[in-house]
Every structure is written in C-alpha cells, then in structure tokens.
C-alpha cells in the first residue's frame, strides 16, 4: 500500500467526521429557532391571519382556505360573489368531461351493440302461430296520444341533450363552429320548451298505465324464463303488461321525475332552490350532473324500448299506431290478458277495455 | 412571447373598488355585470385583506374545456377570450369557473341567460381590433393599442398588477424581499405552530 493511498483514506475519514459534526451543529441551531427577535402574537391573531407591523400577512392556511370556498364580502349586490374560489367548478368540469362523457358513451354503445348482436343471433321475435287476422284493441286513443306526446318530446330532448354533451366532439368537425353553434342554440331552446311537453307526457302516461304496472306473481316466472326472448316457443304468461314493459314504465316514471326535478332547477336557477348545495352555482352543478346521468340512463333504456317496439318484435308496433294487435300476438305475449278479455266477452261484457 | 397574468397584492389592496369602476367605465359594461370584483376577507376584523378578482386567464381554463360549442380561444399571450357569436348562453362556463368570472346579462329563466360576458384582459374579442362591433360586444381592446388592462393601470396603490407574468412576478418578488423575512416569511406560523405567528 502506497503512502498516497493511505493519505487519501485519511482524507475521506476526516471528511466524514466533519460532515457528522456539521450535521449535529445544524440540528443544534434548529432548536433555538424561532429567533429571539421573533414577535409573539396571540392565538386569535394567528387564526385571523393578523399581520405584524411590517405589514406582512403570511398565514399560509389563511390563504389555503380560500381554495376551500371561504366567503368574504363584496360591495356588489350578488353576495355569492364573495366566495373567491369555488373549487367545485373544477371538479364538476372534470366529472363532466371525464367519467360522465366516457361511461355515458360506453352505456350507449353497450346498449346499441347488444341489440345489434341480439338481432343478429335471435332475429325478430315472430308471432309463431302466424297472424290470425283478428284484431284486438290494446291501447285507446287517449293512451296513444299520451305515449306519442311523451315519446316525441323525449326524442327531441334526448337528441338535443346528447348534442350538448357529445356534439363538440362529433359535429364540430363535420359542420364547423358556426354551423354547430346555430344547431345547438336551436337545440337549447327546443330542449327548454320541449321539457314542458315531456312533463305533460310523463303525467299522462303515468295516469294511463300505472294501474297495470304493479309487479305481480307472474313477473317472477317471466324473469326466470327471460321473457321468452332467448328461445323460440317459450312464452311465459303475462297480464296486460309483462315485466319488461313494467321496467320500462317505472324507468320512464322515476327517471322522468328525476330529469324533470333537476331540469326545472336548471330552468329556474334562482327561483327553485330545492336542490342541495351552499351556493346557487353548487345547486346548478349538482342538478346538471344528475340531469345528465339520469338522462343518459333513460336514453339507454328507451333505445331498448324502441327496438322491441319496432323491428325487435313482429306485431307490436301496431298497438301504438292503430291501437290494435293481432289475437295470436296477444295469445303469445299477453296470455293472461287475453284470457281475461275472453272471459269478459263471454259473460256478456262486450266492451273490451283497452288501457286508458 | 409574454404570458399575461393578473396579480393582486393583498398587502396593498385597500378595497377602493376603483378597478371595478374603471373596468365598467372603460368597456361600458351593462348594469348587473361585474367583470371584476373586490372580495374582502375577515371584513372589520384583525387581518382584514382584500383581493381584486376577475378572469384569471388560466392556462388550463375549465371554461374552455367545458364549453359545448367550443367558443373560447386562448391568444398567444395566454389571454382567454370567447366569441359571443358562437356562445349559446348555456351557463356551463359559469358552473366550471372557480373564480366566478363568467357573467350573464339575464338572470336565467328558461335558460335565457344571454351571451356570456367576462374580463377580456382588455383584449377585445375575435372581431377586427378596435372596430365598433368589437367594442360593442367585448369592450375596448387596449392590448391592441399597446396598453395594459385599465384596472391595473389605474390602481392607486399598485396592488393590482397586470402584464407579462415574468415582469409581474419580478415586481412582486422585489416587494416581498423589501417587506422582510424571518417570522414574516410565508408559512412561518405553519412551520412553527405556537411560536411566533405569521
């Protein structure tokens, strides 16, 4: 071992010793902080963030709390403006542009995709015994009017609502900013005014159909047999409405009330204050998020409803257009209802009672 | 390119509301619209502080992200502007903005809020610079005239600063240094609870 090497080793040892020593002296110096010259102030001043005579106000928590929505005062009439930062706005934006958009899209795609697959594999559900030619009145004029009032309002609301959420991504590249703005402003007014037709429609279909939509014991069999949708020749008994129709009905009623309540709060933001939230803007954020979630849910359900009412099942559309269905359609899909009708007509009661 | 910023020095703001008034006057903003406001915290108590707030011209502006018709744009100076021709008055930017910057001329029945209005950093809108249409919709375009926002330009205590972010933060840094340090430093009370406050 050369002298050079051992000198180098000694040097390293001295360096380590110095660094240990200096570390302990730093630690020691920390114990005497704050310096003696520091001005002690009362606890109350600390919480209010009072400054010392130098004019500085360095309470970090005082300013950090602003981010949490601390309300100050303003001299303008809108006292809500006293809240300097409402961070909920950022969260609202992240939720709307993130999970709401993404999962809403997934849900719509999943519904349409599964219907396409169902149609490809199962095809249209036919009236297996063929059409008898004998027509039975299923829905009265009043019931049909209520349905189509609700349906047409819903289609307008659904399309204009989807446009607000997805139009920027889908339509702007196609029709440009100006064109899209025109479409959307028309859509906005159609949405705001169409809402009232929808409200009337929801009340109408509720009164028309509620009596026939309570869950009954046949529905359990219907669910177990998947409504006979998956296999040919399977026709679980059902009364006037089967369980699938009841699900659509109650989704429309419960979801409809949901979008109506949140929608009214958005239409009259400073008049109707039943939505939870501290500030008016919090109420609007809450209402708009739930309006979108429930609206998307309704659209998903109604896509299924439209499918089964049109190309999904032979002979079902006429019940809502002309009001009549074929006798064999009724026998296969609503056997208990047909039996009831036959019993009534045998006992002399010739007035077959459609849904009101 | 400069990145435009507002900074309000809470140690200097005296809540005179002159920035608010100057803004209204410069842009002939209608009654009920406040592009800028002064928020006072702990009013009348020890530690009272006031801050003048308007659009912060965020680099990651939530209004831009959420606008259904994509009516916002950001200039190369980082100023967030919008087109009132595209705006449909839906209120989403008002929901999203943490600072309450977007304003509406109507109170909101049937969604008829009218076109959104907000602080433009005195930079007008998409119309031709200093044209009559631009003034009518967005107010004066002082940036195009080579001037800075009126609110900061006339602030009597120089609490409100506006302009190139680098220059603004240099001015503020000099002030902070001049005001002292030690127990006056940011977060001292947090780091040494029970000791010297502030």
CATH fold naming of chain B = Alpha-Beta Plaits
Element-by-element helix/strand order of chain B? EHEEHEEHHHEHH
Compute the separation of the termini of chain B in Å.
37 Å
- Can you write the helix and strand succession of chain A as a string? HHHHEHHHHHHEHH
* Radius of gyration of chain B, whole Å: 18 Å
Alpha plus pi helix count of chain B: 7
The greatest interface between two protein chains, and residues involved on each side, is: A-B, 75 and 64 residues
Q: List how many beta strands of chain A DSSP finds.
A: 2
- Let me know the number of strands of chain B: 6
Q: Overall 3D geometry of chain B?
A: globular
Secondary structure tally, helices of chain A? 12
> Mind summarizing the main beta sheet of chain A?
2 strands, antiparallel
User: What's the rounded overall pLDDT mean of chain B?
Assistant: 89
The CATH architecture of chain B would be 2-Layer Sandwich
Largest sheet of chain B: 2 strands, antiparallel
- Overall pLDDT level of chain A: 84
Low-confidence stretches of chain B: none
Physical arrangement of strands within the biggest beta sheet of chain A = 1-2
Rg of chain A, rounded, reads 34 Å
Cα(first) to Cα(last) distance of chain A is: 109 Å
Structural class of chain A: mainly alpha
Q: Can I get a quick summary?
A:
The complex is a heterodimer of chains A (356) and B (198). Chain A is 65% helix and 2% strand.
Q: Could you characterize what this model shows?
A:
The complex is a heterodimer of chains A (356) and B (198). Chain A is an all-alpha fold. Chain A has helices at residues 3-31, 43-48, 60-67, 88-121, 141-170, 172-209, 218-224, 243-267, 280-309, 318-321, 327-333, 335-346; strands at residues 135-137, 324-326. Chain A contains 12 helices and 2 strands. Chain A has a two-stranded antiparallel ribbon with strand order 1-2. Chain A starts with a helix and ends in a 10-residue tail after the last helix. In chain B, the strands form 3 sheets. In chain B, strands 1-6 form a two-stranded antiparallel sheet. In chain B, strands 2-3 form a two-stranded antiparallel ribbon. Chain B has a two-stranded antiparallel sheet with strand order 4-5. Chain B is globular. Classes of the chains: A mainly alpha (356), B alpha+beta (198). At the A-B interface, α2, α3, α4, α5 and α6 of A face β2, β3, α2, α3 and α7 of B.
């Amino acid at each position: 071992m050369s002298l050079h090497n051992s000198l180098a080793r000694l040097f390293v040892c001295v360096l380590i010793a110095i660094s240990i020593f200096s570390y302990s002296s730093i630690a020691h110096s920390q114990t005497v902080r704050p310096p003696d010259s520091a001005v002690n102030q009362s606890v109350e001043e600390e919480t209010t963030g009072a400054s010392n005579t130098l004019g500085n106000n360095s309470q970090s928590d005082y300013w950090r709390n602003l981010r949490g929505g601390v309300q100050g005062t303003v001299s303008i009439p809108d006292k809500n403006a006293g809240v300097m930062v409402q961070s909920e706005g950022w969260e609202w934006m992240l939720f709307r542009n993130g999970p709401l958009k993404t999962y809403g899209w997934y849900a719509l795609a999943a519904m349409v995709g599964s219907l396409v697959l169902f149609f490809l594999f199962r095809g249209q559900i036919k009236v297996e015994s063929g059409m008898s030619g004998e027509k039975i009145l299923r829905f009265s004029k009043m019931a049909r009017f209520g349905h189509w009032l609700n349906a047409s309002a819903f289609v307008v609301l659904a399309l204009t609502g989807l446009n607000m959420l997805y139009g920027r991504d889908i339509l702007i590249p196609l029709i440009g900013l100006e064109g899209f703005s025109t479409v959307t402003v028309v859509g906005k007014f159609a949405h705001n005014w169409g809402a009232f037709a929808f409200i009337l429609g929801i009340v109408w279909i509720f009164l028309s159909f509620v009596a026939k939509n309570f869950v009954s014991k046949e529905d359990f069999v219907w669910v177990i047999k998947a409504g006979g949708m998956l296999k040919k020749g399977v026709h679980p008994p059902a009364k006037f409405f089967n369980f699938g129709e009841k699900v659509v009905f109650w989704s429309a009623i419960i979801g409809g009330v949901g979008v109506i309540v949140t929608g009214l709060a958005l239409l009259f933001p400073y008049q109707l204050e039943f939505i939870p939230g501290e500030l008016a803007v919090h109420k609007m954020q809450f209402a708009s998020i739930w309006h979108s979630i429930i609206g998307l849910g309704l659209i998903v359900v109604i896509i299924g409803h439209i499918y089964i009412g049109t190309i999904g099942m032979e002979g079902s559309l006429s019940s809502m257009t002309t009001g009549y269905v074929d006798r064999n359609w009724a026998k296969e899909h609503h056997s208990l209802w047909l039996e009831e009708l036959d019993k009534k007509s045998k006992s002399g009661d010739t007035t077959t009672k459609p849904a009101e | 390119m400069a990145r435009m910023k507002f900074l309000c020095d809470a140690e200097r703001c005296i809540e005179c509301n002159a920035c608010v008034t100057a803004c209204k006057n410069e842009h002939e903003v209608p009654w009920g619209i406040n592009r800028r406001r002064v928020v006072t915290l702990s009013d009348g108590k020890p530690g009272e502080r006031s801050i003048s707030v308007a659009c912060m011209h965020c680099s990651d502006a939530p209004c831009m992200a959420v606008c259904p018709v994509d009516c916002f744009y950001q200039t190369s100076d980082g100023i967030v502007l919008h087109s009132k021709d595209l705006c449909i008055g839906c209120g989403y930017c008002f929901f999203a903005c943490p600072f309450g910057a977007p304003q509406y001329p109507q109170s909101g029945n049937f969604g008829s809020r009218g076109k959104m209005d907000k602080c433009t950093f005195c930079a007008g809108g998409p119309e031709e610079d200093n044209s009559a249409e631009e003034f009518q919709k967005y107010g004066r375009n002082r940036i195009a005239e080579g001037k800075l926002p009126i609110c900061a330009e006339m602030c009597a205590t120089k609490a409100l600063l506006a302009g190139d972010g680098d220059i603004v933060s240099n001015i503020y840094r000099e002030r902070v240094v001049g005001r002292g340090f030690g127990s006056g430093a940011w977060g001292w009370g947090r780091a040494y609870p029970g000791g010297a406050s502030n």
